[in-house]
Protein: Fructose-1,6-bisphosphatase class 1
Organism: Echinicola jeungdonensis
Amino acid sequence: MKTKPYTPDHSALGYSVGVTLDRFIKIKQDDFPFASGELSQILRDIALASKIVNREINRAGLSNIGGAFGSTNIQGEEQQKLDVVANIRFTRALTKGGEVCAIVSEEDDEVIDLQNSSGKYVVAMDPLDGSSNIDVNISIGTIFSIYRRVTPVGSPIQPEDIMQEGNKQVAAGYVLYGSSTMLVYTTGKGVNGFTYENSLGEFFLSHPNIQAPKDGNIYSINEGLTSQMQNGVKNYVESCKKRNFSARYIGSLVADFHRNLLKGGIYIYPKTNKAPDGKLRLLYEANSLAFIAEQAGAKATNGEERILNIQPTALHQRTPLYIGSGQMVDDVYQFMKEEIQSSLKNP
């Protein structure tokens, strides 16, 4: 009888944890010869703040920081306690990082001038998207955009540094606080996703080179507002139902967008009778997600033009948003076009 010595295979126990976010940023730093490390530092600052916010979210039910804060923001929306906490954490991290000269936040009426005239970048952010879902333990997120200032370094911040088209972004991303915490971002050279490993306190590359499906069968829309929507949107929703598409609507923009980005689908928040300009904010919601979408092969429009081509005219400007798999965005755009043509024929 032949025998052989027992040699246990420990390979499964020594799995590779992969590339950390910090190492990935260093590897990709050469893609931006103009940056000299500043952009990389901003991404690190955002990652640090997101770890702190992730901790606060996870302990919210135990530390009495859930629920309403007792005031409203510039949007007229009731601020949640975690809205305020997240805004403080991200603002503080970006201030201490020293690379940012100004911040635009959903939670602040005006531009936050950091009095750092040597800073080369402006950050626009929604510190905590979907905060109405905090108290019911549903996924929420952070959205951010990064722009290079256009006025000379060393001079005071000017409106043109802030009011830039989305196609001028140098980086954009979001953090999803869900069953796991993910940071997804682009610097204009593809989209990559990183999952947070709590025990190590690090983000690891888990979704390299994300590519959105060209088509999908998921539509995300608040159908409770259908009666207030344009006929083109109504007709598109009906066509989705006839094709047995799946309706999936979480009510957190980041969560709905993230699912559709990975699985294929479209997110729609159109203009309505009560919100004729749409509801989502251009500078720190639509622009950043549109940049990510296009870098992943998806599309984003306001129903009339490409989101990234819109020139902002107000700090908290709102816009309709149709974003997701390219074919689905093309389809809804066609329905909108047909509505316009019909109205011209039958004024």
Remarks:
- DSSP finds nine helices and 17 strands in the chain.
- The domain at 21-207 is CATH 3.30.540.10 (Fructose-1,6-Bisphosphatase; Chain A, domain 1).
